[in-house]
Amino acid sequence: MTERQLPRWSELQPLLRPKPIRLDPTRRRLEDALTIADLRTVARRRTPRSVFDYTDGAAEAEISLRRARRLFRDLELRPSILQDVSEVDTTTDMLGKPAAVPFSFAPTGFTRMMHHEGERAVVRVAERRGIPYALSTMGTTSIEDVAAAAPDARKWFQLYVWKDRAAGEDLMARARASGFEALQLTVDVPVAGARLRDTRNGFSIPPALSVKTVLDAGTHPAWWLNLLTTRPLEFASLQSWGGTVADLLDKLFDPTMTIADLEWLRASWDGPLVIKGIQTVEDARRVVDAGADAIVLSNHGGRQLDRAPVPLRLLPDVKDAVGDRAEVWLDTGILSGADVVAALALGADATMVGRAYLYGLMAGGERGVDRAAEILTREVRRTMALLGVRSVGELGPRHVRLP
Question: Which residues are annotated as a binding site for FMN?
Fold first, then answer.
């Protein structure tokens, strides 16, 4: 028979530890978010549907994006046990300089639509955490203002080639004068992809006041208040626009560009050159032969050609073809530190994340971006330790198996 007794206060007291009251709602939301998926859930609640869908969505039936995420989900990580992983080093080289983690913040357009702090918030986090940051041609903060917001950050400028080549030359000159170290040319947007969520939502830049958006304002008052009471939405590289994203891309970008035009680019830019949007082994060889310092295997996050190749599946063949002649980076579908580690194990020199930090931005501004970076960094470090590796350079094909 079990003998029972009443507990003494001295025995109960250690068990009665009430959780601290967190009065700051943003801090509470972010601390409760343990994964990028959690930040996505918060972002969906905090942001108007058309803005969230612009970030979250992809082209046409969104098959490319689902395939990329499915491959990351279904791959197998293969640990090596009984290794000393008391210290794990997440640094890696990107364009010949160390980055604190093996990912950079990818260029994203219209960033102040997601949160009024926009690109300034992102680049300040990048500066603090040693993460390279690429400003988009379609960013909503000027080149000069981004440079001033984080003078010590590693900053790259992402360029779309315009029909007006003089405008492109001006952007490159401004980026160079502002201390941007590298140029990232995106080559997978000869025309805009069919982003059907945007069309169905009536998404435009800036947001148009329709019956739908007025009704939406009632459920997202803070977002609308910030939009209407802060600096008017502008672009890094043009003064204004009053139409859809697809119309803007088709009006500005040059569909006649070929690989021969890289000579024009090199005449205006003498720093490191990254070509983003590579989707075949043959194109990887071509742009490296033409002088690219790094290439990004990317299908634009599934936002251009639907049913495009999955970058992670393409990675081993491209790495074999390119060798050490250029760095090979990868994006599309990365939503965790384990995804980053898997890409490195399959041969990527580094990765880029876009949606992951934008979910954080929508969830909580600069603090949300910092939380996204913290989550990813922690996951990278933990995954490496569980795999039995102490540095990025130790990762290899033996650590991952694709389905």
Answer: 107-109, 136, 158, 186, 276, 298, 354-355
